[in-house]
């Protein structure tokens, strides 16, 4: 495994752990995670503009504390992640599907909390 793949694995793990916990307390850590994902996606991955745009949108609504929009953005990222899993290699696809499920769950929990 290359150092970049190890970094991505660690980022995936930290992201999943954060999303599986109390997502309402994730906001302080979210900006850092979003910046890390933007960096990873920009380094040799098949980056889609819509993912980068949605990460920026999530960062903005997190800063503003707009709960409904946070849930919507997480749901959109879930759909984009599932789409990315369809074209990824087997190992990466499994992790992306897990991330998509976790994003969807976090979105639902936030939507129910309002």
Automatic annotation (TrEMBL):
Origin superkingdom: Bacteria
Protein name (Swiss-Prot/TrEMBL): HPt domain-containing protein
């Amino acid at each position: 495994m290359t150092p970049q793949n190890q970094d991505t694995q660690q980022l995936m793990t930290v992201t999943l752990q954060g999303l599986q916990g109390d997502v309402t307390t994730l906001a302080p850590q979210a900006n850092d995670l979003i910046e890390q994902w933007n960096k990873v996606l920009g380094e040799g991955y098949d980056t889609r503009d819509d993912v980068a745009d949605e990460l920026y949108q999530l960062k903005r609504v997190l800063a503003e504390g707009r709960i409904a929009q946070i849930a919507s953005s997480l749901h959109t990222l879930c759909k984009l992640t599932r789409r990315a899993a369809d074209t990824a290699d087997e190992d990466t696809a499994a992790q992306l599907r897990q991330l998509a499920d976790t994003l969807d769950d976090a979105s639902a929990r936030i939507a129910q909390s309002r």
